[in-house]
Structure formats: structure tokens, C-alpha cells
Write a structure and sequence with these properties.
The chain is an alpha/beta fold and about 350 residues long. The protein is about 40% helix and about 15% strand. The protein is built from 11 helices and 11 strands. A 7-stranded mixed β-sheet has the order 3-2-1-4-5-10-11, sandwiched between helices. It has a 4-stranded parallel β-sheet with strand order 7-8-6-9, sandwiched between helices. Helix 1 runs parallel beside helix 9 and helix 5 crosses helix 6. The model has no long low-confidence stretch (mean pLDDT about 95). Bound molecules: 6-O-phosphono-beta-D-fructofuranose (F6P).
Length: about 350
Amino acid sequence: MKIGILTSGGDCPGLNAVIRGAVLKGIKSHGHEFVGFRDGWRGLVDGEVLDLPRHSVRGISKQGGTILGTSRTNPFSPGGGPEVIRGHLERLGIDAVIAIGGEGTLAAAQRLTETGLNIIGVPKTVDNDLDATDYTFGFDTAVQIATEAIDRLRTTGESHHRCMIAEVMGRNTGWIALHAGMAAGAHAILIPEQQVSMDQVTEWVTDAHKRGRAPLVVVAEGFVPESAETAHSHRGLDAFGRPRLGGIADLLAPEIEARTGLETRATVLGHIQRGGVPSAFDRVLSTRLGMAAADTAAARGWGTMVALRGTDIVRTGLVDALGKLKTVPAGRYEEAAVLFG
Ligand code: F6P
């Protein structure tokens, strides 16, 4: 079987380990042959591929980014669509596609599967917001990077007796904020799933300051303050029509400063959270998911994705991943909030 692999959407530490896992397992156990599509769905829409022989994946599991490139191209945008893609697959003799991506990518994969294309999904996102998998690879690394950055903000905050705000990614979920905030001992964590008043934030910041601490607030980019109805977005929509988030920390900083009288600084961590080498946990998870994707192709499990359940890698329908976001349960937030202030 000749299989094309693509990495689509925001990049994420562990993508190369998935590619390596799939290629090595596919070649060794099933005699598959592999090619890669350049820049996600764009490579499939334009029919642009590169060969992926065994030696091309040598040593790449520790590399960040993706050797295939990625983009936020929507395969259904003008110039694309199932018939264009089918034409390229037939011309190139490709039997199946392994699509590694987040919610937008997997939704597109599901739509293409419904038109009869042979697609298998591998869930990817630093946001950890995909239902049907316990963890997505990239999340562990993003949390580690964010935690280290927040630890650094704490020391400069302490030197200047300032309140420091760290904004982390996560889109409409607060997983990165919750985990990095908890790991760094934040005095407040603000996430999209929980409405928290500015009075409450002020109280947490003031309490920490009264104890001689430099207050540390971790806010998820998707947090919705009480004065707003939706998450802050000032950079338009992405190719899938979703608002680009980011910048809420810059709005909160002057308000916290005005309410508490404490000099306050905001830092938006941004894409630093997605760069660099994957953690050991993410390398192992990615490699296992890639290997399972190659097995799923051999079993002709089209329309499914591979996922982590407990410590097992399982197969599940792509539709299961798309039904709803995996949000932070209230109990997880309440558990962390006991230590705020
Ligand atoms: O989905 C991953 C993610 O990093 C989100 O946390 C963030 O909102 C978004 O992608 C940023 O996208 P871009 O790289 O297109 O700016």
C-alpha cells in the first residue's frame, strides 16, 4: 500500500515522531511505501509530494516542527475539494492518507472520508482539546515550556515587586493554563471554561501581595472576562473561520494595575509554546500513534483515528473526536483554585 502523510494546522512538538513511527512500522511490518504531502492539505490539493523512504525519517523524533511543513489550508477552499484530491491520489498511485492534525484537520478528514477517500486521522494539538483521546501529543511539551517561562516571570516579578501576567495558548480550553499555572504555583489561573469576576482576581492578587509575594496570574488566551461575551480576538479569522485569539493579558494588565495599585506587566508566550524539541512523553506518545496509524491503514480502517485511552492506543471514529471540545471539568478548576490568592 502506498500511503501519503500530511501534517496540517498549527505545528506541534511530536509531529516528526509520528511520521517516523508510521514510516518505520509501516515499512517493517506491512511493506507499505510512504510519501509526504508538503504543507498539509495544500500539498494534497496541489498534488505536491516528497518521497519518505526509511532513511528520510532517521533521527527525527527529537526534532521540533515538521519535516513536511504545515499550513492552515482548508482542502475544501476554491481549487480544492474531493475530486481534485482524488485525481492527484490516482495520478500518484496513493492508496490512503494519514492526516495528522487538530480539530479543523480532522473535521476536513471526516468530510473527505464521506466522499469515499481512504483517510486515517492522528490527533494533534498543544491545546489538548480533542475529545476521544485522553491526551494529545505536544501538550506535555507546551506545558513544560510555559511552566519554565512562568518560573522566569516569577523571579523578575519578585525583584520588582510587580504583578506578572502570563498568557498561554489553548484556544477555547484552559488545559495549558491549568497545568502550567498549577505547576508554577500561580496565584490565579483564568480559563475559558470558568467565569471569574475582576473583583475575585483583584482579591487573589491583593492577598498574594499582602503576604509579600509577587502576584502571578496565568491566563488562557480564550478566557472571557465578565465585561465581554466572547474571547478577545483582534486578528481576524483563520482558514476554517475560527477567530484568532491572543492579547487578553494586555487588556487585563492595566485593569489589575488600576484596581490593586500594583505595577503590572503582561507577557504573551505565544508560539514559543509550540517550538523546540518534544518532551520524552510526547516523543513516546507520538511514536506509538504513528505506529498505530500504519497498522490502521493495513487494516483498512478508513474514517478512524488513533487515540490514547489510559495507557492504551485505540482506534475510534473520526466523528467521535469532532462532536465536542474536551474542556477542563469544573472539578479540576475548583481543585486548583483552593490554592489561589
Ligand atoms: O491550536 C494550536 C494553537 O497554537 C492555539 O493554541 C492558538 O490559538 C493557535 O494555534 C494559533 O494559531 P497560529 O499559529 O495560526 O497563529
